[in-house]
């Protein structure tokens, strides 16, 4: 069989011609001067064979064989085991040329604009918000769990009995204490904002007159803000932000949020309970429904909110 130029075609195809190429090149080289053999015979013949090889199925067969025998994986594993790959990567990263390329890329306007677009994208903001909310919820959940465990442990030590497996529906001392601490921080923040506004007003219109009124407002302002805060959230929502964080709810005997007057009475009893080193809340450890002095006076109870 002959090819398109009338020459005999090898039955082994391109691969066979590549295998026989050294012998043919040597035979042709003996026909002319040695110094002209490469120019006249080797290079043209090699170019023709390479062109035919690339035009045939040889590249696909070679790639299929490499993939089938996992050649690349074996080479990479060998380079990694010998340390040559790590060494090459370290040299490439430590080279001055690589550092210059990275510096040019980072300082380029295109990279800065792309980074700005990514950071300000809606997807990134949503992901950051969800991650932050998830982290805060996980932290709050861990605090709630530990507080409930501390409620049971404290009550068991005071009453000198082993804690039962069931969980009480009434909030204990530790859980209520964490909620109250959060509310105190919120009240302090609100008071700071109002005090700043009052200071701005007095700087514009002058000091308040008479002086005793200014002193009364300054001295009792914190108590006024705290009372309004507690009465509003107890009567309207049945829980303050701190109680919401700890999944607590205050209710009256009918299971509803306490009325404003009952809430105000509860605030007064809370102040009385706090003044002597929070002794008004010691009754929570002994009462079957875990009621403190404010609950006993106002006829309320604090329960874990079922979710």
User: Into which percent range does the helicity of residues fall?
Assistant: over 70%
**Quaternary class:** single chain
Query: What order do the helices and strands follow?
Result: HHHHHHHHHHHEHHE
User: Spans with pLDDT under 50 lasting ≥5 residues?
Assistant: 1-5
Q: Whole-Å distance between the termini?
A: 86 Å
- How many helix segments? 13
**Averaging pLDDT over every residue, what do you get?**
80
Rg over alpha carbons: 42 Å
Q: Main β-sheet, in a few words?
A: 2 strands, antiparallel
Shape: elongated
Find the count of extended strands (DSSP E, 2+ residues). 2
Strand content is under 5%
Main-sheet strand order equals 1-2
Provide the structure class. Answer: mainly alpha
What does this 3D model show about the protein?
The protein has 307 residues and is mainly alpha-helical. The radius of gyration is 42 Å and the shape is elongated. The protein has helices spanning 13-29, 34-55, 58-68, 71-82, 84-94, 96-107, 109-119, 122-159, 173-205, 211-236, 241-245, 260-274, 293-298; strands at residues 248-251, 301-304. It has a two-stranded antiparallel sheet with strand order 1-2.
Please sum up the structure shown.
With 307 residues, the protein is mostly helical.
Write the layout of secondary structure elements.
Blueprint (H helix, E strand, L loop, with lengths): L12 H17 L4 H22 L2 H11 L2 H12 L1 H11 L1 H12 L1 H11 L2 H38 L13 H33 L5 H26 L4 H5 L2 E4 L8 H15 L18 H6 L2 E4 L3
Helix pairs in contact: 1-2, 8-9, 9-10, 10-12
């Amino acid at each position: 069989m002959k090819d398109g130029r009338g020459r005999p075609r090898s039955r082994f195809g391109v691969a066979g011609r590549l295998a026989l190429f050294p012998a043919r090149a040597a035979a042709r080289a003996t026909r002319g001067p040695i110094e002209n053999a490469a120019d006249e015979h080797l290079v043209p013949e090699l170019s023709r064979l390479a062109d035919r090889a690339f035009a045939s199925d040889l590249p696909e067969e070679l790639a299929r064989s490499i993939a089938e025998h996992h050649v690349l994986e074996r080479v990479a594993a060998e380079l990694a085991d010998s340390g040559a790959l790590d060494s090459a990567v370290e040299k490439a990263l430590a080279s001055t040329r690589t550092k210059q390329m990275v510096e040019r890329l980072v300082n380029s306007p295109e990279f800065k604009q792309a980074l700005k677009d990514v950071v300000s994208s809606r997807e990134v903001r949503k992901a950051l918000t969800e991650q932050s909310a998830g982290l805060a919820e996980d932290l709050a959940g861990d605090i709630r769990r530990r507080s409930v465990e501390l409620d049971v442990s404290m009550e068991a030590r005071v009453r000198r009995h082993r804690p039962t497996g069931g969980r009480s529906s009434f909030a204990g001392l530790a859980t209520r204490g964490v909620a109250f601490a959060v509310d105190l921080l919120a009240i302090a923040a609100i008071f700071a904002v109002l005090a700043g506004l009052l200071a701005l007003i007095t700087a514009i219109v002058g000091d308040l007159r008479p002086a005793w009124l200014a002193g009364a407002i300054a001295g009792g302002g914190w108590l006024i803000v705290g009372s309004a805060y507690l009465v509003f959230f107890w009567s309207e929502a049945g829980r303050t932000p701190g109680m919401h964080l700890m999944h607590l709810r205050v209710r009256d005997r009918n299971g509803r949020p306490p009325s404003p007057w009952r809430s105000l009475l509860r605030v007064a009893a809370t102040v009385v309970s706090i003044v002597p080193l929070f002794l008004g809340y010691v009754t929570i450890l002994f009462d079957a429904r875990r009621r403190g002095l404010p609950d006993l006076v106002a006829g309320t109870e604090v329960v874990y909110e079922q979710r």
